């Protein structure tokens, strides 16, 4: 693997982290500008409709992903790209780096004026995460990591929670758009709620994973996330010392989670929390 990275100058994880931060910051500024512009063009009547909210998201997502692709074409033309809006390389050839972009993670928050949304940009090779950045447009906070070099919030090192008891842990989760899966997720939350200290549902998976990295929450789980939701955030949590479980591919043996589960928790909490969730039927989500 190191031979692959050494063959392309500038492919060392810290150098890739720097690129991810640079592009995500630029894109975060665009996300705010697009929202302000599109909302400003809507009438009061328009703002009450579902279609107007969709217009804000569509404009923001498309313009932001286009900017990321443009900048990557300038800086890393040899790499593959997978984005939420335009798709791309699902399975790049072995040894080729792939950037995974969520131009706006937390789109419901984005359209409703809530500040908890992000631009998420990660890079991987052969399924191994190398670097990533998650930038909050409203606060300007920058979360980032490079494989083997730790994780940072605005250049300050991050460390996951040392808590070891689910009964006092604050745990983040999310709910899918699909009504049937949402119902199953809500039922799981109900089954474990009395065994967990508290639950948070913040609406932005990348920032939930970053929150695990910072110890702001002690753990996180969700089923149905896509690579662009977790690529950067999962590495940031992992480099902060969290135990991370990403969704698995075809042919991977069942581990009691189901293929589409994302999980992260501080190292002392990970075992007890995972046991609690799996015992409550997490694999059925």
UniProtKB/TrEMBL annotation:
It catalyses: a myo-inositol phosphate + H2O = myo-inositol + phosphate. SUPFAM superfamilies: Carbohydrate phosphatase. It comes from the Bacteria. InterPro entries: IMPase, Inositol_monoP_metal-BS, Inositol_monophosphatase-like, Inositol_monophosphatase_CS. Its EC number is 3.1.3.25. It is an enzyme of class 3 (hydrolase). Keywords: Hydrolase, Magnesium, Metal-binding. Its cofactor is Mg(2+). It holds the Pfam family Inositol_P. GO terms for molecular function: hydrolase activity. PANTHER family: INOSITOL MONOPHOSPHATASE, INOSITOL-1-MONOPHOSPHATASE-RELATED. Belongs to the inositol monophosphatase superfamily. This is Inositol-1-monophosphatase. It comes from Actinomycetospora termitidis.
């Amino acid at each position: 693997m190191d031979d692959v990275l050494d063959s392309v100058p500038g492919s060392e994880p810290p150098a890739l982290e720097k690129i991810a931060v640079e592009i995500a910051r630029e894109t975060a500024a665009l996300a705010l500008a697009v929202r302000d512009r599109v909302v400003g063009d809507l009438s009061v009547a328009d703002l009450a409709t579902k279609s107007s909210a969709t217009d804000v998201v569509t404009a923001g997502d498309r313009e932001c992903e286009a900017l990321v692709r443009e900048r990557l074409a300038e800086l890393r033309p040899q790499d593959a790209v997978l984005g939420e809006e335009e798709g791309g390389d699902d399975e790049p050839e072995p040894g080729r780096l792939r950037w995974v972009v969520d131009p706006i993670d937390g789109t419901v928050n984005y359209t409703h004026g809530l500040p908890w949304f992000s631009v998420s940009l990660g890079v991987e090779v052969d399924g191994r995460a190398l670097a990533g950045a998650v930038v909050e447009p409203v606060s300007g906070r920058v979360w980032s990591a490079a494989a083997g070099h730790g994780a940072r919030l605005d250049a300050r090192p991050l460390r996951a929670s040392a808590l070891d008891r689910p009964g006092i842990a604050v745990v983040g989760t999310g709910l899918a758009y699909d009504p049937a899966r949402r119902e199953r997720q809500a039922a799981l939350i109900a089954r474990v709620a009395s065994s967990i200290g508290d639950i948070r549902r913040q609406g932005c998976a990348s920032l939930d994973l970053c929150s695990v990295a910072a110890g702001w929450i002690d753990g996180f789980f969700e089923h149905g996330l896509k690579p662009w939701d977790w690529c950067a955030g999962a590495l940031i949590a992992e480099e902060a010392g969290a135990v991370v479980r990403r969704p698995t591919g075809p042919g991977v043996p069942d581990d009691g989670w189901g293929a589409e589960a994302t999980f992260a928790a501080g190292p002392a909490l990970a075992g007890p929390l995972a046991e609690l969730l799996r015992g409550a039927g997490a694999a059925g989500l």
